[in-house]
Amino acid sequence: MQPVANKTPVFILQHAKERLHPKGTAKLAQLCLSQAELIIGKEFKDTLTRIQRDYAPILLWPEENAGSAIPSATEANRREGNERNDNLTRTKPSALIAIDGTWKKAAKIYHTHAELHTLPKLNLQGHENQYHHRKSPSAEHLSTLEAIYFGLRELSHNDIPYHQTLNGLLDAQQRMIEHWHKNLELHTP
């Protein structure tokens, strides 16, 4: 598959133990996107500092009070009391940050990194999980790849040709699922 030329860079913070899970979608997302970085570990302070230096990051996180519309850099700065930095921040391009791991491990990464708490969060409620191969608290809790897909669509608003290009992400996830089922059938007596 040719990588999708995503307009917004994606940074995936993956819990160290998650990389060993055969049904994870973070690696697939990295392979399917032209601008994606997979960072594996438990401590991401230096990575977050680097991302915030170069970008105006938006966190994909299922928080009840997260907005469906992303605040502008100016609004985010005013909320944080950084009005003097408006011109500096406004020139930074957006980037998406996704946390990858079991729900418990992802929550631990979020709660142990105060830098993540101050980021604008993208609310992806209303999208149903099509990836039923791992446990999730509800049908609205998405796989990492699905969250990235819907996040990129949300940021691109009504760019229909781009949305069609992004569909390649879900197609890749579906092919991966079909591959697992096929292998399971071959190895089941």
Automatic annotation (TrEMBL):
InterPro entries xref list: DTW, DTWD2/TAPT
So which domain of life are we looking at?
Bacteria
GO MF annotations in UniProt: tRNA-uridine aminocarboxypropyltransferase activity
**Keywords recorded for this protein, A-Z:** S-adenosyl-L-methionine, Transferase, tRNA processing
Q: State the protein's name.
A: tRNA-uridine aminocarboxypropyltransferase
User: Is tRNA processing one of the keywords?
Assistant: yes
Which biological process terms from the Gene Ontology are attached to this UniProt entry?
tRNA processing
Family of this protein = Belongs to the TDD superfamily. DTWD2 family.
Q: What is its EC number?
A: 2.5.1.25
Q: Keyword check for Cell membrane, yes or no.
A: no
Q: What class of enzyme is it?
A: transferase
